[in-house]
């Protein structure tokens, strides 16, 4: 190995200088609890360290010295560097972060960094490193920022060549980072419609673990995140590192392991052939990637991401506003709209405590089913002869504000818009459109399309007092070609972002929900422009617990749309008691999606009690730290814990027994549940809040817990644990803990 320059400056000094050229050898970005050390000694910057702040006596040079590697038998004398953007020309044998060419030449792109700029930004520190390849006239810019305990990174490529032929960019990762040795298990995310955010753990292996998405939206089956962890990592113990790509389109995530033992992570957008072509003076900017690491298990990791979302991503206007209880009309009426029925539903919703009435699909021109109307965003006079005004007035009289469903990116062939502009849809030359929900995707990269959509939405928001838009997208982009036949998927996503940005600037008080057949578009790119994510189209309470478990690793509860569905779930045809349906929805952004006229008076009374409980506790749920317990089967248990540990709200759900094996529990009494995240030296008053009409059986302990409560130290609850009552399958308990 080449010799390494040492530095005697302490870690608190932001950088160390190399004596030969007076350039910094390292740069330190500090977050709240984590530091990122950037190694600047090579041709391109590299991530030397990401972890807890190190001692003042520790220098970056010390870390670098212990990171030195000797020559691998049968290998090169010097390792190809694992930089932020390793390239083919650098001898890197893993996945190249940047792959490009200019008419078949220029593949040997080999930049060297030459400029560095630091800055203080809101909530953290930022660093910009510029590298150039004068031979090809190309420049790359690495942007890094430590915000809270999240490392945010991106890469830009600029064509400064005088040659007229463009560069074709085949791939540009936002970042490439090393993975510490112990983190040898890959936690990835898969799923389907109505079954998103399912977690799968895979043992790391030599070669590449790759997750790709070509659906033109974030997707149900490949949420763009990977977590690397130790085999023993659980929710509150062990180390874990996570990477999330904040991008709402096609993507590629890679975990690679080389034969020399080095492991790396890489994330970036996935381009279609020839999609990114840079003429002289043009540039490509990658999406942002978000990285964090924790030595306190998955709970510690999610705490970092939740804090970032709350303080650095969400609209500042929502931070101090309570998340209103929604009533959504979809599963009550579907396309069968009439004013009398909707007013009755508004009456029912207000009676149980709803604060917002959202009119879903079916209100616009010709929309009696899903085969017509998309694109014609005019209130249908056949259903609403006086417009939406009478319904909105009735909703307001009931003390609720009004929201509206839209699907602006889509068009039905049976619509006035398509008949006038058949050339406004995405397509593939010579290929027939693949049927998908009787609709096609509009080409948002076409300036006239985006202008028309803004005009229609802007007119709706000016005409009516609409407080909320549910922005849906119900099909994949299977043929993402523009008017000239070129692939435009990247431009499509940027045009979507621009449309949302323009709409929010014009109507800053209107909240927007990101929906894509449920959780098909959930990522930090879309969340930076919206206020809520519809987590899944399934309102099945037990399925929701699993979906919300995966979702909650990166998103806090207040952005998680969670609705109380009908007694018989419309998707799974399973039935659950109202106590369970309501309690599961309570721990997100709560709503209702059912025909309340069909619910029994007893169930509506229970729902009203749950909504009242949500209103009393949403301040804690939407600001506290989510701490999942390592729950024994058949339980799912977690807590929302106030900063400082002063109070907590605990959910304990009985998931039911494995009917494939046996319909009976293996033991007469359930196993204990050990809490996490409490302050061990504090004493808590613990009381059961839910269900409100319990049957504690013959347990005096649980009778007391439901009556006046009991006291227990945090240490007892975490180390000894709580023996739950004999719960029925698919039931749920909510406990409140208050430090005394």
Radius of gyration: 27 Å
CATH homologous superfamily name of the largest domain? Aldolase class I
Q: Stretches where pLDDT falls below 50 for ≥5 residues? A: 1-15
Q: How far apart are the termini?
A: 60 Å
Strand percentage lies at: 25-35%
Number of alpha- plus pi-helical segments: 14
Secondary-structure arrangement, i.e. CATH architecture of the largest domain: Alpha-Beta Barrel
Class per helix and strand makeup: alpha+beta
Mean pLDDT: 94
CATH class of the largest domain: Alpha Beta
Topology:
Layout: E1 15-17, E2 24-30, E3 34-39, E4 46-52, H1 60-66, E5 98-101, E6 112-121, E7 124-133, E8 138-147, E9 150-159, E10 167-178, E11 185-190, E12 198-203, E13 207-213, E14 225-229, E15 240-246, E16 251-257, E17 263-269, E18 276-278, E19 283-285, E20 288-294, H2 297-313, E21 326-328, H3 330-333, H4 339-352, E22 356-359, H5 389-397, E23 401-406, E24 410-411, H6 416-420, E25 440-441, H7 447-463, E26 468-471, H8 489-506, E27 511-514, H9 524-527, E28 532-534, H10 541-551, E29 560-564, H11 578-586, E30 589-592, H12 601-621, E31 625-628, E32 635-641, E33 647-654, E34 683-690, H13 700-707, E35 710-713, H14 714-720, E36 732-739
Parallel strand pairs: 21-22, 21-30, 22-23, 23-26, 26-27, 27-28, 28-29, 29-30
Antiparallel strand pairs: 1-2, 2-3, 3-4, 5-10, 6-7, 7-8, 8-9, 9-19, 9-20, 10-17, 10-18, 11-12, 11-14, 13-16, 14-15, 15-20, 16-17, 24-25, 31-32, 32-33, 33-36, 34-35, 34-36
Helix pairs in contact: 4-5, 7-8, 10-11, 11-12
């Amino acid at each position: 190995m080449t010799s390494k320059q040492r530095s005697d400056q302490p870690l608190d000094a932001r950088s160390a200088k190399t004596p030969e050229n007076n350039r910094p050898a390292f740069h330190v970005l500090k977050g709240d609890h984590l530091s990122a050390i950037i190694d600047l000694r090579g041709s391109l910057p590299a991530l030397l360290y990401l972890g807890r702040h190190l001692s003042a006596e520790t220098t970056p040079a010390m870390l670098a010295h212990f990171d030195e590697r000797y020559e691998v038998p049968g290998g090169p004398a010097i390792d190809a560097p694992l930089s932020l953007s390793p390239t083919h020309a650098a001898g890197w044998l893993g996945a190249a972060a940047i792959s490009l060419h200019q008419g078949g030449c220029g593949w040997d792109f080999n930049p060297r960094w030459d400029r560095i700029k630091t800055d203080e930004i809101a909530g953290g520190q930022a660093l910009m490193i510029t590298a150039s390849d004068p031979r090809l006239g190309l420049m790359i810019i690495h942007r890094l920022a430590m915000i809270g305990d999240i490392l945010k990174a991106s890469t830009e490529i600029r064509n400064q060549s005088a040659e007229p032929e463009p560069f074709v960019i085949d791939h540009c990762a936002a970042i490439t980072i090393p993975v510490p040795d112990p983190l040898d298990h890959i936690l990835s995310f898969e799923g389907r419609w109505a079954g998103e955010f399912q977690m799968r753990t895979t043992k790391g292996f030599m070669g590449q673990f790759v997750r790709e998405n070509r659906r033109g939206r974030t997707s149900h089956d490949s949420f763009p995140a990977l977590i690397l962890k130790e085999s023993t990592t659980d929710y509150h113990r062990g180390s874990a590192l996570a990477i999330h790509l904040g991008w709402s389109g096609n993507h590629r995530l890679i975990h690679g392991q080389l034969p020399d033992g080095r492991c790396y992570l890489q994330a970036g957008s996935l381009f279609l052939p020839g999609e990114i072509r840079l003429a002289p003076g043009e540039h490509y900017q990658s999406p942002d990637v978000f990285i964090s690491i924790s030595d306190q298990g998955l709970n510690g990791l999610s705490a970092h991401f939740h804090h970032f979302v709350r303080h650095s991503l969400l609209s500042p206007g929502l931070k101090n506003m309570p998340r209103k209880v929604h009533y959504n009309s979809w599963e009550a009426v579907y396309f069968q709209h009439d004013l009398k029925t909707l007013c009755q539903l508004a009456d029912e919703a207000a009676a149980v405590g709803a604060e917002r009435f959202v009119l879903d699909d079916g209100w616009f021109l010709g929309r009696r089913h899903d085969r017509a109307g998309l694109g014609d965003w005019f209130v249908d006079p056949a259903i609403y002869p006086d417009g939406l005004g009478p319904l909105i007035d009735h909703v307001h009289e009931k003390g609720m504000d009004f929201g509206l469903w839209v699907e602006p990116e889509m068009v039905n062939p049976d619509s006035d818009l398509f008949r006038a502009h058949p050339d406004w849809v995405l397509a593939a030359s010579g290929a027939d459109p693949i049927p998908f929900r009787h609709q096609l995707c509009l080409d948002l990269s076409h300036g006239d399309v985006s202008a028309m959509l803004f005009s229609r939405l802007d007119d709706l928001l000016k005409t009516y007092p609409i407080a909320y838009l549910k922005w849906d997208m119900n099909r994949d982009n299977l043929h993402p070609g523009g008017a000239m036949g070129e692939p435009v998927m990247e431009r499509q996503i940027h045009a979507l972002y621009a449309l949302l940005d323009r709409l929010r600037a014009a109507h800053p008080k209107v909240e927007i929900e990101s929906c894509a057949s449920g959780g098909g578009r959930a990522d930090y790119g879309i969340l930076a422009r919206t206020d809520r994510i519809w987590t899944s189209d399934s309102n099945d309470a037990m399925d929701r617990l699993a979906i919300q478990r995966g979702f909650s690793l990166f998103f806090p509860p207040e952005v998680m749309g969670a609705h109380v569905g009908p007694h018989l779930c419309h998707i799974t045809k399973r039935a659950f008691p109202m106590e369970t349906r309501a309690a599961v929805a309570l721990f997100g952004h709560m709503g209702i999606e059912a025909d309340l006229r069909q619910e029994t008076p007893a169930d509506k009374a229970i729902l009203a009690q749950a909504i009242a409980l949500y209103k009393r506790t949403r301040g804690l749920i939407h600001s506290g730290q989510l701490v999942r317990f390592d729950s024994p089967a058949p339980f799912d248990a977690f807590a929302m814990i106030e900063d400082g540990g002063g109070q907590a709200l605990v959910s304990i759900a009985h998931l039911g027994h494995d009917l494939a094996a046996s319909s009976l529990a293996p033991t007469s009494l359930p196993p204990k549940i050990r809490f996490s995240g409490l302050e061990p030296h504090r004493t808590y008053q613990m009381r059961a809040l839910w269900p409100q009409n319990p049957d504690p059986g013959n347990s005096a302990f649980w009778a007391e817990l439901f009556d006046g409560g009991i006291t227990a130290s945090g240490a007892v609850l975490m180390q000894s644990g709580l023996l739950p009552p004999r719960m029925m399958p698919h039931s749920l308990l909510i406990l409140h803990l208050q430090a005394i």
